[in-house]
């Protein structure tokens, strides 16, 4: 059986998601690690946006990967695998959000929005935002200060750079609704914030390598405990 350790890394990176999935379905289950490492950053950012908690976001990632592996046979390929996987993570995060009753559901519109944005209403001194690290931190605070239904859309479109269609598919919204939420989210964050941060937004909410390794190990351990062979 092939594993990621014995594969040429350059070759495996060229494989599409569907090619990896087909190899995993055929019995090369160790190749599931490629999927995990490929989408750790995205799932972390999106789960973090919904839950606003690092530890819970990481646990959501692991649960989503396990659930996706269990139901891999159900992936029909009609939509991109990335959207299918991300939707699983979003559902997992939303379920946790409802259980702990920490926040409103995504359908709660227009209530107390300005109050929730108080953390980003005050314009920072430009001298204090000179470095990329400081700007990235400022962006994180602004995104996390948004109401839930705007925060998820802004995270997916601006930080993770999903298309409008992909975001709509993941959140089960119309493309027009995605555009409206993105526009309102930008208004709340103040237009100058994104203008100043620019391309450094892609560096926000990093998911570091050691955490990536930990998620891979934890997912494989969970699958093993469930009697699902991953080698």
Work out the strand percent: under 5%
- Assign the CATH architecture: Orthogonal Bundle
Find the count of extended strands (DSSP E, 2+ residues). 0
User: Level of helix content?
Assistant: 55-70%
Say what oligomer this is.
Answer: single chain
Provide the residue-averaged pLDDT.
78
Poorly predicted runs of 5 or more residues:
102-107, 118-131
The topology string of helices and strands comes to HHHHHHHHHHHH
How does this structure look, described?
- By secondary structure, this protein is mainly alpha-helical.
- It has a single domain, classed as RNA polymerase sigma factor, region 2, helix turn helix motif (Rna Polymerase Sigma Factor, Chain: A, Orthogonal Bundle), CATH 1.10.1740.10.
- Helix content is 64%, strand content 0%.
- The protein has 12 helices and no strands.
- Helix 3 packs across helix 4, helix 3 crosses helix 8 and helix 7 runs antiparallel to helix 11.
- The protein is globular.
- The protein starts with 8 loop residues before the first helix and ends in a 6-residue tail after the last helix.
- The relative contact order is 0.14.
- About 9% of the residues have low confidence.
Any chance you could write out the topology, listing elements then pairs?
Layout: H1 9-14, H2 17-25, H3 32-51, H4 54-70, H5 81-100, H6 113-116, H7 132-144, H8 148-159, H9 164-171, H10 175-189, H11 191-197, H12 209-225
Helix pairs in contact: 3-4, 3-5, 3-8, 3-12, 4-5, 4-12, 5-9, 7-11, 8-10, 9-10, 10-11
